[in-house]
Structures are given as structure tokens and as C-alpha cells.
Specification:
The protein is about 40% helix and about 25% strand. It is of the alpha+beta class. Strand 9 and strand 10 (about 140) form a beta hairpin. Residues about 320-325 have low confidence and may be disordered.
Length: about 325
């Protein structure tokens, strides 16, 4: 049961966004990690980007589920979140608990090449930080609270672009900074193209960037669906009158704010039910419902089944998925 995006940016709006995109303050390093090592990246004021060259491992982002990481995987981590990259040990297992692997704290861009451990590397990854602005200097990733994860392939040629960008930074030639920024922009443009086809929910964050106040209100609802949002509280949070907020929100989504909030709550509830980690009463609370009966009625209208039946079906479907390899 895959969570699908509710909205996508239009091709015309995406083209305008890509045309006005400006990338700067690029810092990139290639990190070669031996078996059983971990790379700790401290919180920073800018988002970080991580791209797999070879091997596999896992990325742990503060407050988020683990992200499986392999060649051609691209991960953008929001600013202010600590990140850890773990390489598998000699047996191919991934030990995710702290203290078992050799730990190194690293600042992206501190050196062009960074080696962790004395043995042959089992994971090669680019780590970097950057600033991406669009339109009138608006931060493209400011409202992105969770990591963006997309997997590319060799035909996308991101390996070559990343290598070229790092070479420009390492050479310290005239224009190396602008060249590396232009090359990283190509990587981000490849990511933004995924807004039209990706099944990951992050794409909907870019669907309304032409109206920043409405984008901020949507981010408030999506980030905290359990909060008791109202039209009044949302309009106040973005400094719009109630009528202006209602009109602009409905124009952007074709639905009222409360209808959109209900969709977001139901999707959040479905994810929690599929994870099977908390009770249905707790799922109802985390979806913003004080009453289990009210939550159940809304969930049944939205999905055509009761929460308990949805959870059971999700559990049955995972039993038929192939087991993941530890290597």
C-alpha cells in the first residue's frame, strides 16, 4: 500500500521554477568509507545533499526512519538536521546502534576527498551543502521538513556531473565556485523533473510554490496534521485575511483548507496503520481526532474500509514481499 502524492506541480509552473532557480554556497566532498564505519554530519544552516557513487549502506536523519542508500541514490536533508551515514561491516550487516562502528564527524567541503578507515572502501558517497533560491530569492527547501529520497540510474549521468563539480572545487581555478554551482544546479534540476513522475509525497511541496503564503499554510498542515488547525489559525499564520486565504487556497488546490487537511490526516493515518506500531486509538489521536468513532467514520468514507481492516490488509500484503538482502 504505497502512499501517493495528492498534488503535483504543473509542467508550466515547474518550467518557471527551474528557469528561476539559483544555486550557490556549494560545498562538496567525496567520502570513501571502509566496512563498519560511520560518518556523522553535524546540523548546519543549509540543506545537505548525499549521492551514492558505489556500494550500499544506510542514512540516518535525525527524527526520521532509516533510508537505504546505494549507488545512484540521491538524498536531500533539510537544514538543521543531524545526519549519519553507515557503511556495512565485514559480514555485510548494517549496525545502526551508535558506538559499534568507527565514528567520524565531518563538515561537507572541509576537504575534497575524505577517507574513513584503513581498509578498502565499501561505500563511496558525495556529501555536500548548498543554497537553492527561486523567484524573488525564496529558499526552495525552506519548507521541506523531511528528507527527499530519489533513486536514479547510470543513464541519468549524475555520477559524471558530481565528479565534474568536485573537480572544479578541488582545482581552485578561477570560476571554480560558479562552475560547481552550475553543475549542482543540473543535479537539482534532474531531481525537480521527478516532480512529474515520482510516487513519493515530497513532490507535492513544490506544487504551489507560486504562492508562498499558501505553500507555508500547506506545510503547516502536512507537518502537523494532528494540530487543531482552523481557517482562522491558518490565515493568521501566513498574515492573510480569512477571505483572501480561503480564495487563494481554493484556487491553488480546488478544495477548501479543511478538505485538504482531512486528506492529509487520512493519509497520515494510513501510514501509521500500515506501520502497525501503535494502537488504533493512538492513530486517531495522531491524525487529529479526539474520538475513535469519528476517526473510523471518516477513514471508512475515505478508504472504503475500517482502520482495523486496512491494517490487516497492509500486514497481509507485506508478508508476500521478498525479503531484503543484508548486503
Amino acid at each position: 500500500m504505497t502512499v501517493q502524492p495528492i498534488w503535483r506541480i504543473s509542467r508550466a509552473d515547474l518550467d518557471r521554477l527551474m528557469t528561476t532557480l539559483e544555486v550557490s554556497h556549494v560545498r562538496l566532498s567525496e567520502c570513501a568509507m571502509a566496512a563498519g564505519t560511520r560518518l556523522e554530519i553535524a546540523r548546519g544552516e543549509h540543506p545537505t545533499i548525499h549521492y551514492g557513487f558505489a556500494g550500499s549502506g544506510v542514512i540516518l536523519v535525525e527524527g526520521e526512519p532509516p533510508v537505504d542508500f546505494c549507488a545512484h541514490t540521491l538524498v536531500v536533508v533539510p537544514a538543521g538536521k543531524a545526519t549519519t551515514i553507515i557503511a556495512p561491516d565485514a559480514s555485510g550487516a548494517l549496525t545502526r546502534s551508535p558506538g559499534r562502528e568507527q565514528a567520524v564527524i565531518f563538515v561537507p567541503g572541509a576537504s575534497p576527498r575524505h577517507t574513513i578507515g584503513e581498509a578498502e572502501p565499501v561505500l563511496r558517497v558525495v556529501c555536500g551543502s548548498f543554497v537553492a533560491l527561486y523567484a524573488a530569492g525564496l529558499d526552495l527547501f525552506a519548507s521541506q521538513p523531511v528528507p527527499i529520497v530519489e533513486t536514479f540510474d547510470a543513464h541519468d549521468q549524475l555520477d559524471q556531473v558530481m565528479n565534474y563539480a568536485m573537480s572544479e572545487l578541488a582545482s581552485q581555478e578561477v570560476g571554480g565556485g560558479p562552475m560547481s554551482a552550475a553543475l549542482l544546479k543540473l543535479v537539482l534540476l534532474s531531481l525537480l523533473r521527478r516532480c512529474l513522475i515520482s510516487t513519493n509525497p515530497w513532490v507535492e511541496r513544490f506544487s504551489i510554490l507560486n504562492d508562498p503564503p499558501i505553500a507555508r499554510a500547506f506545510a503547516e498542515m502536512a507537518n502537523r496534521p494532528s494540530d487543531q488547525h482552523t481557517v482562522h489559525s491558518l490565515s493568521q499564520s501566513v498574515a492573510l485575511s480569512r477571505s483572501a486565504f480561503m480564495a487563494r487556497f481554493t484556487t491553488a488546490f480546488g478544495e477548501s483548507p479543511m478538505a485538504v487537511l482531512r486528506r492529509l490526516r487520512m493519509r497520515h493515518a494510513a501510514s501509521l496503520l500500515a506501520a502497525n506500531a501503535i494502537s488504533i486509538d493512538q492513530v486517531a489521536m495522531q491524525a487529529g481526532y479526539q474520538s475513535r468513532s469519528s476517526f473510523t467514520r471518516t477513514f471508512r468514507r475515505h478508504y472504503g474500509t475500517d482502520p482495523s481492516e486496512y491494517r490487516a490488509e497492509a500486514k497481509r500484503s507485506t508478508q508476500f514481499e521478498p525479503a531484503e538482502s543484508s548486503t
